[in-house]
Amino acid sequence: MLRCEPGGTVPAMTRYPRSTLRLISVAWPFVLIVLLQTALATFSLQVSTSLRAFVTGESLWSKGQHDALYYLNRYADTGNRSFVDRYRQAMLVPLGDRAARLALEADPPDIQAAYQGFLEGGNHPDDIPNVIWLFRYFRWLPVMEACLRDWRTAEGVLLQLLPIGEAIDASRHISEIDRRDITRQLDEINALVTPLTKRFSDRLGAGTRQVQDVLLAANVAMALLFIVLTVWRLDSFLTHRRKIEEQLSFSANHDDLTGLANRRLFEDELERMLAGPKTRHALMFIDLDQFKAVNDNGGHAAGDELLRRVSRDLANAIRGTDLLARLGGDEFGIVLPNCAPEDALRIAMRLREITEAIDFVWNGHRYSISASIGVVHLAGRSYTLQEALRAADIACYMAKEKGRNRVHVYETTDVAQTQFTANLNWVQRLHRALEEDRFRLFSQAIATVRQDGETGEHREILLRLEEDGTLLSPGAFIPAAERFGLMPALDRWVVRHALEIISRRKGAAAGTYSINLSGLTLKDETFLPFLREALRHSRVPAGALCFEITETSAIENLDEAIAFMNAMRAMGCRFALDDFGVGMSSLTYLKRLPVDYVKIDGSFVRDMLTDKADWMTVEMINQISHLAGRRTIAEFVENAEILAALQTIGVDYAQGYFLSRPEPFLPETTGLAAPLRRVGAA
Asked: What sections of the protein cross the membrane (predicted)?
């Protein structure tokens, strides 16, 4: 595990190790070739320079021995001793070169003596190191060995001039006979040394050309190697790039976990198929049942392994022309080109059976799953991509709605499917309404029936949806919101906006404002923190709020409801049990539920004057509620006679059109109905 440096910085050596290694693996052959090419060029330059210096030295050596012979011949002809001095000067060159050669051939070689010898041989000081380098390290070459042999041989002949020179120095006067003898000796020496010198020069020239040819060939070979390497590395790079592009393309179009096509490739293939000839095609959506239990109990590793298992089994069960894709989570889709309706249904049934038969064991626990499958036949009408996806989604939802582990075929004439589609449309509309803040709050007064009742304002806050200048009642959209889990979001919207208005109403602290909560909100662990923060922000006292929950939702989630209500009552909030009496079995739970009010369902109140059973029901609920220490509220009070009857029975509060109609909930009471057209009941 990498540790960060102080300050949270990862060391540079550990930050990009992979990219650095990758760069080195790509670049090292080119770096090596460049280094080799540079070394070869440097070596070639050194050899060429050394050969040039050696050839120059050889030229000076040849000229020196030629001049020495020439000046002695001139002395023999003329007797002029100035030619003797010139002879001595000319002999310094071959003698210096000889001294240098002997110094280099010594063991160990005397570099300083060799340098001095070549310097006396007339070589330029800058050329001498190159001559020494060439002599020391390349004299083993055949051409160099031959040149050195010629050098030694010619040198041995040339040294015969030394006794002649010494004899001339010993005698101040030389006779005619002696001059002729000297001339004869010089002619003999010249006859011997001239071919040796020429052969030395020719071999050195030939050797130079050979070395230059070798160097040229080496440079050409290195250049060819560089070209071959460049082509090879470029091909490797392009191959690697193609592989990366293929991997990226595969990753962009396939699911990392299962290797199946992803939603992008799935939709592209479906769109291509829909745009093609209008033949019989089919589309399936598959949603795994009980997958959440595997994920929750076995962990995500178990869920991932199960998804891979399901993917393999489904892929093995479809046709080779079909495209199976993982659309996300535990959802799969299949595009079935050229598939008759009966074949599509048969395939779907087989896939359902295969999924149900999967025996999945993880850490000793056995899990069973099933699949809800929606099938759409695309030959009956012209579908767009979105229409086809929506139809398959609805069909899959319907399979789940009908009990899961089944196949549902999309049919436009299916009534239940039509209703389900309508609810799905409401989901989009409600999301849009929340985003655009198009909900409106209304309120209806709750009046005191008994003389000793509360004196503060008591109102129930009601929700409306505004669309195109029309107010829609809750009955139009609440069922869809409950079915698709949107009620917690709606409840939060109501609480947030209600508190904002209550905080600006006069006398709100002494009033009671009832807000309806859904059963889903009772299970929402984040609602209590939200409410605390909303109360703190609005500065509305918690005692001003009374939350209404239906008897059905309270009983279905009894323990959760009790814990939720106790927590909110600890904050100071109150509760009312709404629509009470619809399920009379709930009377046994009334003592356990910590509510302050019991709202008698309006279906009993509305007809209590003409239906004795309804009268007795209202009376019984009122008595039981009072015995349990709860106050009662009667709904649907629509005339004075019902109000009088409620007074006779002893109901505490009344609510209905006779007392007040719903009106916009504003910082100040208007007493006026909303200026918008109404749809539905209050």
From this structure: 21-45
What is the C-alpha to C-alpha distance for residues 242 and 220, in angstroms, rounded to an integer? 32
Which among 523, 537, 600 is positioned nearest to 565, based on CA atoms?
Answer: 523
Same domain, residue pair 402 and 443: no
Q: Residues near 342 by Cβ (< 8 Å), separated by ≥ 6? A: none
The verdict on 404 and 462 lying in the same domain is no
Task: Count the domains in the chain.
Answer: 3
Smallest CA-to-CA distance from 76 within 87, 63, 89, 61 is with: 87
- The answer to whether residues 217 and 360 belong to one domain is no
Do both 374 and 471 map to the same domain?
A: no
- Give the span between the Cα atoms of 119 and 424, in whole angstroms: 105
The number of beta carbons lying within 10 Å of the beta carbon of residue 319 is: 12
Asked if residue 611 is part of any domain, the answer here is yes
**Same domain flag for 79 and 139:** yes
Q: What is the DSSP string of 566-612?
A: HHHHHHT-EEEEEEETSSGGGGGGTTTS--SEEEE-HHHHTTTTT-H
Q: For the chain, what is the mean pLDDT?
A: 83
pLDDT digits (tens, 9 = 90+) for 577-593: 998 876 555 566 787 88
The contacts found for 64-69 with CB under 8 angstroms, 24 or more apart, are 64/90, 64/91, 64/92, 64/93, 64/94, 64/97, 64/121, 64/122, 65/90, 65/93, 65/94, 65/154, 65/158, 65/193, 65/197, 66/197, 68/94, 68/158, 68/161, 69/161, 69/186, 69/189, 69/190, 69/193
Residues 383 and 495 both lie in one domain: no
Which token pair is 525? 């662990």
Q: Nearest CA to 207 among 274, 151, 125?
A: 151
- Write out the two tokens for 268: 């592209």
For 18-45, what is the mean pLDDT?
72
pLDDT digits (tens, 9 = 90+) for 429-476: 899 999 999 999 999 999 999 776 667 889 999 999 998 889 999 988
Instruction: Evaluate whether residue 3 is within a structural domain.
Output: no
Pairwise CA distance, residues 665 & 662, whole Å? 9
Q: What would the pLDDT profile of 604-619 be if each residue is shown by its tens digit?
A: 999 999 999 999 999 9
7: in domain: no
DSSP 3-state of 539: coil
Boundaries of domain holding 326: 263-412
Tell me the residue type at 657. Answer: Y
**Domain check: are 408 and 441 in the same one?**
no
> φ, ψ for residue 73 (rounded to 5)?
-60, -40
The token pair that represents 539 in the structure block: 């500065």
In this structure, are residues 589 and 622 in contact, taking their beta carbons and an 8 Å threshold?
no
Answer whether residue 677 shows pLDDT above 60: no
**Cα–Cα–Cα angle for 110, 113, 116, rounded to 5 degrees:** 150
Buried b or exposed e, range 453-480, using 16+ CB within 10 angstroms: eeeebbbbbbbbbbeeeebbbbebbbeb
- For residue 32, tell me if it sits in a domain: yes
pTM for the whole structure: 0.54
